[in-house]
Design brief:
Number of helices: 5
Order of helices and strands: HHEEHHHEEEEEE
Number of domains: 1
Strand content: 15-25%
Shape: globular
Strand order of the largest sheet: 3-8-4-5-6-7
Number of strands: 8
Distance between the termini: 34 Å
Length: 197
């Protein structure tokens, strides 16, 4: 009985730590994402051969996933390496949408479905809602199509909408890295919090 009480007390003490990722990290990630919007980037989903680790496509091009990768990289988190290592160890848990039989350090981290699996496995998968309970630095994914699938991803910023009801999102939906009021414009497919642990 003493062990059970000790376990309950221990869980109660550490539950708040586990339940909430470091808010300071989220603030820094949101700021890093907003800083990206000051760079001129053309949407380009082409396949590029890039170095590993810490590889990146040319700085003047990118897709929605590159916003996520570059924001985390500003905080010293290399998602190229982390996604690759997790996919190598757990390839069967990742989507097999591209006919791949193994990992590819050039592209795996730049695919939204792979990022969704990674964030769910290594961060927190949070409830999807239509309320503004999204914190700065959270990652949100959407399906841009009403029928079929066109995945998209962005970062919750530290800037609120003009009416103060929603955080603006940093994303690249085809016109470069932008800060926009679009959180609820498409069907949300995922809500994640990952502090780079």
């Amino acid at each position: 009985m003493r062990h059970l009480i000790l376990l309950v007390v221990t869980l109660a003490l550490f539950a708040p730590v586990v339940a909430h990722a470091d808010p300071a990290f989220g603030e820094k990630l949101a700021k890093a994402a907003v800083d990206l919007t000051r760079q001129n980037v053309v949407y380009d989903g082409s396949y590029y051969r890039i170095p590993y680790p810490n590889g990146d496509v040319p700085p003047h091009v990118g897709v929605c996933a590159d916003v996520i990768i570059r924001a985390y990289r500003k905080l010293g988190v290399d998602l190229q390496q982390r996604v690759h290592e997790d996919m190598q160890a757990h390839f069967g848990l990742y989507p097999h949408l591209w006919g791949m039989k193994g990992t590819d350090t050039n592209i795996d981290h730049r695919r939204v479905p792979n990022l969704r699996v990674f964030f769910a496995r290594h961060g927190r998968s949070l409830p999807v809602s239509t309320n503004a309970d999204y914190r700065q630095g959270d990652i949100v994914s959407w399906n841009l199509k009403k029928q079929g699938s066109l995945p998209h991803i962005g970062i919750v910023s530290n800037v609120m909408s003009a009416d103060g009801k929603r955080p603006l999102m940093v994303h690249n939906i085809g016109e470069g890295q932008k800060l926009e009021d679009m959180l609820f414009d498409y069907t949300i497919t995922g809500h994640y919090r990952y502090a780079g642990e």
